[in-house]
Amino acid sequence: MADNEDEKKAPGKAGRPEMTPEQEAEIAAKKAARAEAKAKGQKGGGKGKAAAAAKEVAMERVKRDKPARLRSLYDAEVRDKLMKEFIERVFRKYLTPRERKILFLYYGLDESGEPMTLEKIGALMGVTRERIRQIRERAFEKLRESPDGRALSGFWAA
């Protein structure tokens, strides 16, 4: 029974919805106000000027952290774009147009972004899935043997 009470008091984050920055700031402000009130010997904590000041400090912290979050999203987009450009450049340099098309379709690197099965690619190109698999393997071999092969090794597991 004690275990259940402990779980109720301190539930994990797994079941909780994500908090907005404003909600985080409000919680931080209430905690700061309680701590300040406790230090002054007051009861009730979250009321008055102390609460307003703590909330203001917490909101400033959220505003300061917001650009960092946006920066990390921007960095991820830039990284993805550079990775795609690198793959396209290496594919163009070492593979035939047919091999490029098969790998682009197989990994969803085309405009649709949806990876396709060997069966679907075969139907699209008018050959069997086994032939598509052979061409894909030949393309992998070319890429592995290329000077850029080591840089590509982490992009896929085939």
Low-confidence stretches: 1-12
The CATH first-level class of the largest domain comes to: Mainly Alpha
- Structural class of the secondary structure composition? mainly alpha
Shape: elongated
What's the CATH H-level homologous superfamily of the largest domain?
Answer: Winged helix-like DNA-binding domain superfamily/Winged helix DNA-binding domain
Query: Helical proportion?
Result: over 70%
Distance between the termini: 50 Å
Essential attributes:
Arc Repressor Mutant, subunit A, 0% strand, 7 helices, 158 residues, 72% helix, mainly alpha
Short description:
The chain starts with a helix and ends in a 6-residue tail after the last helix. With 158 residues, it is mainly α. The radius of gyration is 28 Å and the shape is elongated.
Please tell me about this protein's structure.
The protein is mainly α. It folds into 2 domains: 20-78; 95-158, Arc Repressor Mutant, subunit A (Orthogonal Bundle). The chain has 7 helices and no strands. The protein has helices spanning 2-9, 21-40, 49-94, 97-107, 118-125, 129-145, 149-152. The chain is elongated. The two termini are 50 Å apart. The model is unreliable at 1-12 (pLDDT under 50).
Topology of helices and strands:
Elements: H1 2-9, H2 21-40, H3 49-94, H4 97-107, H5 118-125, H6 129-145, H7 149-152
Helix pairs in contact: 2-3, 4-6, 5-6
